[in-house]
Structure formats: structure tokens, C-alpha cells
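Translate sequence into C-alpha cells.
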Amino acid sequence: MLCNIPESIKRQSRVIALVAVGFVLSLLAGLATAKWEPELATSWIPADDAPNEAIEMIFGRFRESVREGQLGAMATCILIVFGLNTLGSIVRSISTVFILPLAFLFFSGWTIGVFLLGLEGSSFLSVFLFLLMAGLEWVAYVLSAAAGTSIGLAVLFPKRVERSTRWSAFKRALSQAGSLYVVIVVILAVQAVFEILYVRKVLLMGGTGVPLAPW
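Result follows.
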């Protein structure tokens, strides 16, 4: 499979590029909306704290251990982050097989853009590292959505993957998506390590880490 990765990415490059462009445009649209229509932007973003409460339930008990740099706690959090992000990628790939759910990815890009306009930190470095950490996850968003979309398009148009039947096209596209997932897994593994190291820095600077933002 490792030998097939470059060829698989090449075959899916057009879909990856289109999804990436859509995501970036939606992110820019979010920035523009937050700048020119701030009331409209905030009205679309849920005001409840349910996501933060869920994160607190999962990671809250590790806060002091991570702040102190205990390797066992940090490794556990890295595995949890990696597992959750990988599961999210798989769900995203499965949903985007049907192509239309790509709209949810672009809505996520829009909300990220709205969030970014108000992003503040104590230094340029803190903001840069935060964006670098988050950017790795956003790349995984795009790649996992592209993997699912490629499968969906292959089923609709088997000749895209040089197959005569939809079933054989599905199997070929699924194999290509599997190769792409090797890249996704590597990105998410690096991102998980980076995120927990970043969270520890936030905790050392007096933050809570929930929700995560530049220190």
C-alpha cells in the first residue's frame, strides 16, 4: 500500500484540489461574513456549551497531570485526540461518499473563518503555532472528505477509475482511499502530539485548555 500512495494521491488529486478550494473559499467567506456582517455570522453559530462540556468530561481529569508534564497522562490524551480525530475522518469519508454532505465540510470551513477573525493571542508565536496545529487537522478534513467523494464519483462514473462496473469501480476507489488514509493517519498522529504539547503550554500560561485557543 505504501508504494501505491503517490499514485493514489495523483489519481485523486483533482478531487482533493476541488475539495480544498471549496474549503478555503468557505473559510474566506466566513472571514468576510464576520468582518462585514458580524450579527449574521454569530446568529448561525450555536451558543450552547455542550461541545465544551463534552471535552471537559473527556479531558478534564487529565488537566493537572498534563500541566505537570506526566508522560503517561500526555500519551493517553494524545491517543484520545488521535482516536477521536481518526473516527471523525472515517465518518466524514463515509458521509461524503454521497457527495452532497460536502456542504457540511464547507459549513465547517465557514464557521472556522468566522472564528479566525476574532482570534487573539499573547504573541505572534502563540497564534502561529495554534494555526499550524489546527491547520494539520483541517488538512485531514479535506483529505478525508476527498477520499469519500472520490468513492462516490467512482460509483457514479466508473470510467473515472478505469472500470466497467460500479462494483469494481467502488473496490478500486476504496483501495485508493485506503492509500490516502495512510497519509491522513500520519497527519493526525503528528497533530495529536502537537495538540497536547500546545495544550500543556496553554495550561502553563494560566489557561484551561477548554475551549482551546492561543495562550
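Note: The chain is about 75% helix and 0% strand.
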